[in-house]
């Protein structure tokens, strides 16, 4: 299914559809299910077709345009969170909504916001919601923008160039193309990017509770 999707994007929409998908996945709530990593890797594999669909430019121009789409997507998510944040703080608490969770998110971004914005680019789903939460908790815009741009450059460049050069190497070394194996590559990318997070969440070290607490029984 992923192969068909990517083939359709390349053949019918080319770079324009890819830019929209990257923009949507990095900033719009409904874009969390889109295959950003796999699409970027495929962009490197199909670099020649993408260039042909956009005035035969060099693939470095394609990388630059995708970086811009990623940056703008995050900025849109930040803007949305920034505008809706005050409404959430004033909202009446319900079973599903607790203001303390917003305060915890605020404290988390105060401490780890820079790394979160940067590393979220490499994590499916999280990359969609990280900029929105940053806007909600009022992360400084200049700080968010810097790490948004830095993360976008590293994420897009590593994925696209990884696909481009790996395709060339495999084709020259073994005589076959990766285009027919994008689904497997996508699974590998997802596992590599998400397993460390899942391991940290579920199998990471938990705080040790000291059970040898001495209680003073000589209460006067």
TrEMBL record:
Q: Which residues form a coiled coil?
A: none
Provide the transmembrane region boundaries.
15-47, 59-80, 118-137, 144-164, 184-203
Q: Which InterPro entries match?
A: DedA-like, VTT_dom
Keywords tagged on the record: Cell membrane, Membrane, Transmembrane, Transmembrane helix
Where does the record place the VTT domain? 34-164
Q: What's the superkingdom here?
A: Bacteria
GO cellular component annotations, sorted alphabetically? plasma membrane
Instruction: Kindly give the membrane topology term recorded for this protein.
Output: Multi-pass membrane protein
Q: Does the keyword Membrane apply?
A: yes
A Pfam match is VTT_dom
The keyword RNA-binding belongs to this UniProt entry's keyword annotation: no
Give the location in the cell.
Cell membrane
**Similarity comment text for this entry:** Belongs to the DedA family.
Protein name (Swiss-Prot/TrEMBL): DedA family protein
User: Which organism does this record belong to?
Assistant: Ilyomonas limi
